[in-house]
Design brief:
single chain, about 80 residues, alpha+beta, two-stranded parallel ribbon, 2 strands, about 20% helix, about 10% strand
Length: about 80
């Protein structure tokens, strides 16, 4: 089985091999006005439009939680990546 194990889960009773580490990042188009900034905050990013995966999933949950914890409202445009082929 291939699966993600959330960081907060107790995995002490599981036997598994890590296949890779995930690093989250924000991707923007060439020439985007925020690319030249080096002091970006989550508040700055919350003012932008976002293209995100559907609301089901660990990564989407992390992004939503990040904004909620900072009491910021992101302006996501949900996108199902499986329909972008």
């Amino acid at each position: 089985m291939i699966a993600r194990i959330p960081e907060h889960e107790d995995d002490s009773d599981l036997l598994y091999d890590d296949l890779s580490e995930e690093k989250e990042c924000v991707v923007a188009r060439n020439g985007h006005p925020l690319l030249s900034r080096r002091d970006l905050t989550l508040k700055d990013l919350s003012k932008e439009g976002w293209i995100l995966t559907s609301r089901v999933g660990i990564l989407r949950n992390r992004v939503d939680t990040m904004f909620v914890q900072q009491v910021l409202i992101a302006h996501p445009m949900s996108l199902n990546p499986h329909r972008c082929r």
